Amino acid sequence: DVAERLVQTRGYNAFSYADIATELSVSKAALHYHFRSKEALGDVLLERYTQRFFAAIDAIPAETPAPAKLARYVELYRIVLHADRLCMCGILAAEYQTLPITMRDAVLAFFDRNESWLEGVMREGIEAGTIRASEPVRDSARVLISGLEGAMMLARARNDYERFDCLAKRMLAEVTVPVP
């Protein structure tokens, strides 16, 4: 939990085992016993974050209309930001070139899986007449996730969470067909 918070608030390259050991009042050797390297710790953090993120998505009932699914998806980002954190994979994407290859692969896999889920929800909504997105729909999914990640970063930099909320609402409005 401590390492996850440090990554989400500082970034992967801006914390060390010493930071974790100090907060937990344990030795660095004790941390190395469980995670032989920072890369091993990073791999576990990414796996855990991804599992929890997609468990939250999977908890959205299948019969939920597409616009509501997208709103619940946006809420996942909002909750993280309002805890004064960034999406772990978003902050790691900013550090991508300096990450170990296993972590790079996991970050890309996280975003690929998000894009696929969003594309599926958008296609479902297009068929139901509740979502508007031009082909290729995957591009619309990419715009949404990129917009959310960027909105998080800028809102956190300005300490203005309302900025994120406003931008997220606007992004949803752009793809949602208004109800008469």
- Structural class of the secondary elements? mainly alpha
Characterize the largest beta sheet: strand count, sense, and whether it forms a barrel: none
Shape: elongated
DSSP helical segment count:
9
* β-strand amount: under 5%
Number of strands: 0
N to C succession of SSEs? HHHHHHHHH
Structure description:
By secondary structure, this protein is mostly helical. 74% of the residues lie in helices and 0% in strands. It contains nine helices and no strands. Helix 2 crosses helix 3, helix 5 (66-82) runs antiparallel to helix 7 and helix 7 crosses helix 8 (137-158). The chain starts with a helix and ends in a 5-residue tail after the last helix. The mean pLDDT is 95.
